[in-house]
Automatic annotation (TrEMBL):
This is RNA polymerase sigma-70 region 4 domain-containing protein. InterPro entries: RNA_pol_sigma70_r4, RNA_pol_sigma_r3/r4-like, WH-like_DNA-bd_sf. Residues 31-58 form the RNA polymerase sigma-70 region domain. It comes from Sporosarcina quadrami. Pfam families: Sigma70_r4. Signal peptide: none annotated.
Length: 193
């Protein structure tokens, strides 16, 4: 059947045959787009420009947010996992429950709690809460404590003495008078005990 009375071509007939192929192609394009393929990659596959692919998708009622790059970005955001420690907010790597920082804490210290006996504050660095960690580093710089184990013994002495703010001289004297309570390695006992 000619496309009009004055034309001798069979264009309308050709379009009727081509219609199902085009419908199949358009549906395939829509599916590829919804699977996250970009307009350019779909156009390369079908020999069309990126703009023509976009126009075909619009004709089929598909907007840019329903697939392509937007979908891939959305999927990427959904796949990000965050550390399970409350108030952390750091991203995890792989299948880990914890961020790299908390994972290191668990491996090195066995928990997220401060190593100092009686302190239930979450640890921040080196197995101690912010207060005890700062106190440890200041006292180590001043020469009041030798290492973490010594610091933990000093903290235990404070608790056992029951005095509000004992001096280091008083603490060392108390530790010397009661050696049986300070013989063991408190760091190893707190971490692995």
């Amino acid at each position: 059947m000619p496309c009009n009375l004055y034309c001798g071509c069979n264009r309308r007939y050709d379009m009727a045959i081509q219609l199902p192929k085009r419908v199949i192609r358009d549906r395939t394009m829509v599916q590829l787009f919804k699977d996250g393929r970009t307009l350019e990659s779909i156009g390369d596959e079908f020999g069309l420009s990126r703009e023509r692919v976009r126009q075909i998708l619009v004709e089929r009622g598909i907007c840019s947010g329903q697939g392509g790059q937007a979908l891939r970005t959305r999927r990427k955001k959904e796949s990000v996992r965050y550390c399970e420690v409350s108030d952390c907010g750091r991203k995890t790597k792989g299948e880990s429950k914890y961020c790299h920082w908390h994972k290191e804490q668990i491996e090195n210290y066995g928990s997220f709690k401060c190593l100092v006996k009686g302190c239930d504050t979450p640890s921040l660095k080196y197995g101690m809460c912010n207060n005890h960690g700062t106190n440890f580093f200041i006292n180590r710089q001043r020469g009041n404590v030798e290492d973490l184990n010594d610091y933990l013994k000093v903290q235990l002495a404070k608790v056992l003495m029951g005095k509000v703010k004992p001096t280091f001289v008083e603490l060392r004297k108390f530790m010397k008078d009661n050696p049986e309570q300070f013989e063991k390695d408190l760091f190893t006992e707190n971490v692995h005990g």
